[in-house]
Amino acid sequence: MAKPGTAVEHPFFARLWVRMAPSIERQGAGEHRQRLLHGISGRVVEVGAGTGSNFGHYPAGVTEVVAVEPEPRLRALAAEAARDAAVPVTVVDGVADRLPADDGSFDAAVVTLVLCSVPDQAAALAELRRVVRPGGRLYFWEHVRAERRGLARVQRLLDATVWPRVGGGCHTARDTMAAIADAGFVVERVETFAFPDTRLPMPASPHVLGVAVRS
Ligand SMILES: C[S@@+](CC[C@H](N)C(=O)[O-])C[C@H]1O[C@@H](n2cnc3c(N)ncnc32)[C@H](O)[C@@H]1O
């Protein structure tokens, strides 16, 4: 596991994600992104931007997006996506637990499918809180620990074995809602749902999507 503040290099996962990302969008990710980002405005920091799948969903009220992405392959694709975005997007290198930004310099922060992968959730969320102004908002869409005990047990087993190795440090059993609250964000709205919505739940199916206010 990478230590907080160190570079993130997951070249295998980066290649995998480039292949997976279009099928995730086809399964309905775009609708979740659109719903999440509806109403976001001002200066925004997006952390772990991947290939830039959120960029096309930022509404006109967004004045600037600073998109942080540590993986070189993904960052290059995000920079391409930024050119087609309707709002100004600058893609930069950086990691979640050491953001290249001043205190309180953003109106909002966005994380989608990222808090599962950062080496230290508390450190990442503390950084997000640092760079968002008081009263600003954290927009999140993340897969999380299952409510069902059987599935949660499977998640813990996977996290202790293969999942983080093939998934670029991804963990399935994180209690991300608790971590968001512990970091000093007050949840304003949250939905829980399965994605993808398959008959048999997958280890990374349980999702949360919502907005929290920086206290
Ligand atoms: C599953 S992908 C999601 C990409 C994108 N947010 C999306 O919704 O499509 C996880 C992303 O988190 C990034 N990531 C992993 N560890 C990170 C860290 N410590 N700091 C910032 N980003 C990180 C990965 O490089 C990758 O882009």
Automatic annotation (TrEMBL):
<dbReference type="InterPro" id="IPR052356">
    <property type="entry name" value="Thiol_S-MT"/>
</dbReference>
<protein>
    <submittedName>
        <fullName>Class I SAM-dependent methyltransferase</fullName>
    </submittedName>
</protein>
<dbReference type="GO" id="GO:0032259">
    <property type="term" value="P:methylation"/>
</dbReference>
<dbReference type="GO" id="GO:0008168">
    <property type="term" value="F:methyltransferase activity"/>
</dbReference>
<dbReference type="Pfam" id="PF08241">
    <property type="entry name" value="Methyltransf_11"/>
</dbReference>
<keyword id="KW-0808">Transferase</keyword>
<feature type="domain" description="Methyltransferase type 11">
    <location>
        <begin position="45"/>
        <end position="140"/>
    </location>
</feature>
<keyword id="KW-0489">Methyltransferase</keyword>
<dbReference type="InterPro" id="IPR029063">
    <property type="entry name" value="SAM-dependent_MTases_sf"/>
</dbReference>
<dbReference type="InterPro" id="IPR013216">
    <property type="entry name" value="Methyltransf_11"/>
</dbReference>
